[in-house]
Amino acid sequence: MPIKILIADDHALLRQGIKNVLALEADFCVVGEAIDGEDAIEQAKNLQPDIVLLDINMPKMNGLEVTREIRARLPRMRVVILTIHDDENYVFEVVRSGAAGYLLKDVEPSMLVQAIRLINEGQSFIYPTLTRSLFDEISRRDEVVSMLDKRKEERLTYREIEVLKLVGEGMSNIEIADKLYLSQKTVKNHLTNIFRKISVGDRTQAVLYAIKNKIVVIE
């Protein structure tokens, strides 16, 4: 049985390029192409591909939202993110969303083919140069969790500490939302909870609290 693949990217030229590469493999079959996030979910349901090659930046729904939706509705389907972003935050969020692979768009065709075959067999695949970044990000987040464990009386969640840290670094609500893949409303809700839990009335007091408790380190 051929490996059925759905390509989801809003750039027609890129979709065609990927399709041309995959067409060279006798055991691959491109069953569909999606132009936005909602289209990707609909086609995934209708076409039942084995693999979804998914861009992270797409109209209507981004790749992370699509991945979560597919994993919730179609848990046996494997999602591979194909993107230009090599930031460790992207890698971590993609893995956390349930994707089985993370590849950069400048990947060699042979590596893309290898990744698809491995992922179809139940394995995971991360672009080799990003593996170190992923472990570094996991380590950093473990440190935050450890920090949280030491402050149980404050009852700040992991996400609240993360938001507070970014506030301390001078980020606006919009920037925090983009960084953590949240809505601005969710960021505001986190800030309201943070202010209440640490008994402060504004961002400035929250930043001072973060510095005092070494959530933010001033260099």
Automatic annotation (TrEMBL):
Which ranges carry the HTH luxR-type domain? 149-214
Signal peptide range equals none
- Ranges in a coiled coil: none
Domain annotation Response regulatory: ranges: 4-120
Entry keywords, A to Z: DNA-binding, Phosphoprotein, Transcription, Transcription regulation
In terms of Pfam families, this protein maps to:
GerE, Response_reg
Q: What is this protein called?
A: Transcriptional regulatory protein DegU
Q: What is the lineage of its organism?
A: Bacteria, Bacillati, Bacillota, Negativicutes, Selenomonadales
* Gene name for this UniProt entry: degU_2
